Amino acid sequence: MTLIATARGTARTLAFSGYAAATLGAFTWQARGADDARVEALLARYRRRLFRGTLRLYGIDVEVSGVVAPTRRARLVVANHQSAFDIAVLGAYFGGSFVSRADVERWPVLGQLAADAHTLFVDREDRASGAQAIRTMRRRLRDGQTITVFPEGHTARGDVVDPFQPGSFAAARGLDAEIVPVGIAYAPATEYIEASLLGHLVEVGGRGHTRVALAVGPSLGTSESAERLAEAAHEAVQRAFHSARRALADRAAARADTNDPQRIHRR
Fold first, then answer.
1. What does each C-alpha distance from 253 to 244, 249, 258 come to in angstroms?
2. What's the CATH number of domain 3-266, 3.30.40, 3.30.310, 2.160.20, 3.40.1130?
3. What is the pLDDT along the chain (267 residues), one digit of tens a residue?
């Protein structure tokens, strides 16, 4: 990274920290003494505000294909996982809560934000933790809520979506809910693989803009076994991911045509 990019990324990350803390403070203040329905309404509003504000602060431009329609029906949103910004991208468009690994709860600021946003923290080394998460997910889905999961269980790079773990699908099996497959793709070198979280935030923030494509596939039912649901969702997310990658490539080609003086002259 250049010095200018590092300075830009650091400034954006500091601004994000302040924005996140202010959002948390505003939510906590307004939720004081409110009844459960009011707290839930405030939570939904502030979650969306935080996610959309994060995308603006970091210069992240999202192009969506497929239908992201409001619904009263429960949704299990399943997506591939490439970046820490997946949460802001998906949260801005789908709302609802997330399932995350247990150590995120201990992160400064972000851990408290995630906890207040009703994130489900799962210790993948603890079977009891996984079982409790499935029970809680199932209860939330019965209540008509939206939950987003990354069934790969880790971030990944490249063109292949890793196999899905079936646990999240056991939570949805047989319920009146829809499974929404989503593919998410970023401009090259945006994956959160080896860098620290802070380093990843600064690196992405150091760019002028980061382009993201979000492809939403047709919804799936919940009547089959958890294993079969995981397989079907994996296939659907793989297709959506490839669609998102193509959308990014098409945008890059269109920009190249627009910026090529020779092409402009020939026209």
1. 14, 6, 9
2. 3.40.1130
3. 899 999 999 999 999 999 998 998 999 999 999 998 999 899 999 999 999 999 999 999 999 998 776 677 899 999 999 988 999 999 999 999 999 888 888 877 777 778 878 899 998 888 899 899 999 999 999 999 999 999 998 888 778 899 999 999 999 999 999 999 999 999 876 777 767 888 889 999 999 899 999 999 999 999 999 999 999 999 999 999 999 999 988 887 877 666 655 554 554
Name the pTM for this structure.
0.89
Which token pair is 160? 């292949």
